[in-house]
């Protein structure tokens, strides 16, 4: 046999080369966009479809920069949508908006909570609307999730298919100072990763915290609970909160608590813990302090695996924190693309971001952005069925 195939090493190298070339030959990323209705006030919305040529498709709508769907194969090659969402614009602009659930959206100007809706910038106190009494949640009454973004560019390259969306937030928008210009580039790569690259600049000192609020279920949208999924989080600490989800200012160890996912752990094992932090949140809804330096190359923040489908997803980011949320507020009042009602625990959100209420905690990584500085962060969701 060795005389036919050459040495074992040569044979394996040849097989690997053939497999690689076959994969490259099949990987033809594409991008397309088309109309997707209009908002209640008449603004046209478009949907952008990214395909990486390897069986994975991501769709983004210009309303809220929302990830409307991500379709990717399971271990048998069966393709399913793995994010919760709706098949029409009304599901986002009217129905789910009433519950403030932020399906798939870009969150800004300030993701997560601000105590009392107040925050300092250069010694002056500013205010945004209280939307989760007694605090502000996710950037005011009309945050980035409720704006129509502009398609700045689309295209394909050797790395995949991409779209860049742009939003200009005027000075005073929702109470935040400074004219802020934000670009978010979504790239669906030939490595089966969906990357979100955030870049923002301001013309006056302000605070900024951006994230994406997709609800993930690796067994498929509408398939029920994510409790059997296995989660690992690369964090030794978290930021404890009071009963209103405002951080105390401490960073506490996860060891010995239901928040310890330093080893792969079934999500449902401790979801009903009587730990006080879990009781406040009615499940998981906390900010983990991701190990390793922030602001540099994205590092692994977490990984989730679904034993039913064989799908896994890695979350990589250069943000300092990862808010993990087990969709505790889904109450059966919304039915998604599948036609199935969404209930508590039917998805998990991974909101890579700065810590909640950072402007009011000087010891936390700063969220200040000044003229001449650039907010530049990346979060990557990488899929596998191996």
TrEMBL record:
Organism of provenance: Gluconobacter cadivus
Pathway listed: Carbohydrate metabolism; hexose metabolism
Signal peptide, first to last residue: 1-27
EC class (word): isomerase
PROSITE patterns hit by this protein: ALDOSE_1_EPIMERASE (PS00545)
Keyword Transferase: no
Reaction catalysed by this enzyme: alpha-D-glucose = beta-D-glucose
One Pfam family per UniProt: Aldose_epim
Keyword set, alphabetical order: Carbohydrate metabolism, Isomerase, Signal
Protein name: Aldose 1-epimerase
Family the entry assigns: Belongs to the aldose epimerase family.
Source domain of life: Bacteria
PANTHER family tied to this protein: ALDOSE-1-EPIMERASE, GALACTOSE MUTAROTASE
EC number: 5.1.3.3
